[in-house]
Amino acid sequence: MSKISFIIPIYNTSKYLDKCVESVLNQTLSDIEIILVDDGSTDGICPKMCDDYAAKDSRVRVIHKENGGLMSAWICGSKAATSNYLSFVDSDDWVDVEMAESLYALTDSSFATSEIISSNYIVEKNNERRKETQTLKPGVYFRQDLDKICEGLLGAEIRPVTMSRCMKLISKELLLNNLKYCNTAISMSEDVNITLPCLCDCQRLVIAEGSYFYHYRLVGESIVHNYNPKLLPNLELTDKTFREILADKKVDGYEAQMDREFIIMLLVILKNELRCPDKDTAARVKKIFLRPDIRKKVTSTKVDVTSKANKLLYYCIKHPNPVVVAVTKAIITAYDRKTN
Fold first, then answer.
1. Which intervals hold domain Glycosyltransferase 2-like (predicted)?
2. Based on the domain organization, do 143 and 265 belong to the same domain?
């Protein structure tokens, strides 16, 4: 049995796939298995690329499945894995070759079924690189520490532990035991859907110091220009799902935590609306943020925001009048053009 199973979900990402897979194949820790999950790619290229990797390296296994979305793909790979530890890499990202060895050195065999080793990451956008660091101090945390940490996993501008399933080693048993909480209808914050219950159950969490091994490729066009009219219903679905998880895990004060998280995610909703190509921006924003239930949460829930962009967005959701909306949209649009 290999030490780590790398799971790479793939869907029409041939442009990036070589860099991703080669970065895993070249790990300094060679005792790994690599599971390529082809989620029904339609480009006519990815399926063959996957099979070619498997033909060249016995550590590579390929699963071809009907398209079911990202969550269904990594779930499929997780169930097929044979190692005690799982590591996820999205197929348009890549990792440094020492990641597996460095993170595996931080594991403890006494907690092989119930631990998470979490690293930091680098955002890669065009020629810009930005390091992202978790706010929880590097170190080892056990259950007595984690009970308190879990009371604030969500609801902050920067989370204490990055909630991505990537850039981590996660005990396979811990993850499989929490798949029951996963809702494949979720399309935003889907990683939180599995990372949240795993953190609530894990007995040992390691925050690795430094460890900027994971390179998250930010594809500007998909983020900036693709308006998603289903984002608000998705937020409402994640809000319901995550509240149920925290309630089931008996996390103290989970309602207040989720109220803060809802407000933080409303900033994303607003940004999405400001990027909509339609001209009735003010009317749409007003319809959302003056809706009685949302208005009540905005006015009764205090959140701390520090970045200039989020301060602007937060002011706008509290004052969704045409002038504020117009100014906010102009600034966000100018920022998008500058950074894209």
1. 5-142
2. no
